[in-house]
Amino acid sequence: MINKLISAGFGGQGVLLLGQLVTYAGMIEDKHVSWMPSYGPEMRGGTANCNVIVSSDPVGSPVVTNADAVIALNGPSLDKFEKTVKPGGKLFINSSIVEKKAKRKDIDVYNIPASEMAIKFGNSKVTNMVMLGAYVTATAVVTKDSIMIGIKKFLGKSKAHLIALNEKAFDAGAKLVR
Amino acid sequence: MKGNEAIAEAAIKAGCRYFFGYPITPQNQIPEHMAKRMPEVGGTFLQAESEVAAINMVYGASGAGARVMTSSSSPGISLKQEGISYIACAMLPCVIVNIMRSGPGLGGILPAQADYFQAVKGGGHGDYRLIVYAPASVQEAADCVMEAFEASDYYRVPALILADGMIGQMMEPVEFKPITKRKQPPKDWAATGNDGTKPRAQINSIHIEAEKMSAVCKGLQCVYDKIAAKETQYEEFMMDDADICIVAYGTTSRIVKNAVKKARELGIKAGLIRPITVWPFPSEMIAKATEKCKAFVAVEMSTGQMVEDVRLAVNGAKPVLFVGVTGGMVPTPEMVLEELQDIEEGM
């Protein structure tokens, strides 16, 4: 098993964290993982992104060229990475702010109104969690339990009160693709 | 853990208690981690006013017998070269980390392997070498740092960790293994203060008389010969029956491994020799491979640097080809595979 993900969006939308949580979950499940962030000039152009690989075998190249899934939280990310999804792969679009529709017909496209749902929960910062819920449920790369262990660890004691909100957002995303 | 953090933590675990640096992308998580950790372990973290100052602080701390490290990225490493040459001449141990970005000039901040020449063929002036480790994963980066401290102390030769922005920035699981300690000679050469009961310790890199300088150079060369004989490290991947031997290090080697696997699926017998130390370079292993392999390919994120060492090792016995991208671009397995298919058709 190997699953390659690109998570992309504006800086501040939590795309890197989204990828990290998938990475941690993979690690918790004793899989081989790698997480490679964009740190170059493209970050300044609205497509902060990370390449995540979860695999049953050691990870070769950490660079994702044929993605099993792309999560696009904004328009520029859709423009840039739609072509990277391999045929039969999955594309998750934050349809709240991405006005364009996906052009590809050979992939599964999930339009998730993630920003709107997050705002409905009272915190736009959990947009990424809605997308994560959809992604994890549609792909079954890792389990929700592993993701939650990662979220708890990431938030730590001082932000433990946010665990419930994050889980709620995750479940909302999950429900949309079930 | 990020590669940069793993490098910094490995240094702490190896007993490094002094870190001097100056910020530059893509290695900033190293000083960041050191700034947090050094006070916790009773060490010293200092952000110097420049790279030149930082390397000279390393020179001083090492002269006093401490385990010390500095880190930077390509243009910053260029600035440190004078100090590195002095440290090499004074026979002092230290660990220098270069998280390479693209160049020449101030260049870009994306990964590259364009400092190979600088790392293995000099960098600074004079007849000297560094022990150069080129890790290909976050785990190996941590392991190499620990080993670098031990080897550097043992030979009194500075060690360099030559990684690129990708190794520095990526996150992978890492386990800090207990350090494999060598039986170290006492640091009786260190300048640690003198109460008049022993001869003065002199840390020196100037030898005006030709005879003396020549003796120093010869002495260094003896040490380098020992290092070449004992410290060369490499990994072989699917080399048993390989027709085409690829040579690649660091990040590039991971991409090549994917290409080798794909080539094998197409019936192309490719293999990889991955130098873990790029100086000393696994020349003998490559020379041996000329007996079985029909062609060699060097793959690098540069316009062709390590390929020269591969050509020297192959010594005309077989064709040596080159695949490279540079400037912050990263090769894809498909690109390497295409080259392998071309070679296969030509054979």
CATH architecture of the largest domain in chain B: 3-Layer(aba) Sandwich
Q: Percent helix among the residues of chain A?
A: 25-40%
Calculate the mean pLDDT score of chain B and round it: 97
Overall shape of chain B: globular
Euclidean distance between termini CA atoms of chain B: 44 Å
Q: Kindly, what is the distance between the CA atoms of the first and last residues of chain A, rounded to a whole number of angstroms?
A: 22 Å
Largest interface: A-B, 17 and 23 residues
**Number of separate domains of chain A:** 1
Instruction: Provide the β-strand percentage band of chain B.
Output: 15-25%
Quaternary structure type: heterodimer
**Which stretches of chain B are poorly predicted, pLDDT < 50 over at least 5 residues?**
none
Number of strands of chain A: 6
Examine the coordinates and then state which fold CATH places here, giving the name of the CATH topology of the largest domain in chain B: Rossmann fold
List the helices and strands and how they pair.
The complex is a heterodimer of chains A (178) and B (347).
Chain A: E1 2-9, H1 15-28, E2 32-37, E3 48-55, E4 67-72, H2 75-81, E5 85-94, E6 108-112, H3 114-120, H4 127-139, H5 144-155, H6 163-177
Parallel strand pairs in A: 1-4, 4-5, 5-6
Antiparallel strand pairs in A: 1-3, 2-3
Helix pairs in contact in A: 1-4, 1-5, 3-4, 4-6
Chain B: H1 3-13, E1 18-21, H2 29-40, E2 44-47, H3 51-63, E3 68-72, H4 74-89, E4 95-100, H5 116-120, E5 131-133, H6 138-155, E6 159-164, H7 165-169, H8 210-230, E7 234-237, E8 244-247, H9 250-265, E9 270-275, E10 277-279, H10 283-289, E11 295-300, H11 306-314, E12 320-324, H12 333-346
Parallel strand pairs in B: 1-2, 1-3, 3-4, 4-6, 5-6, 8-9, 8-11, 11-12
Antiparallel strand pairs in B: 5-10, 7-9
Helix pairs in contact in B: 1-2, 1-6, 3-4, 9-12, 10-11
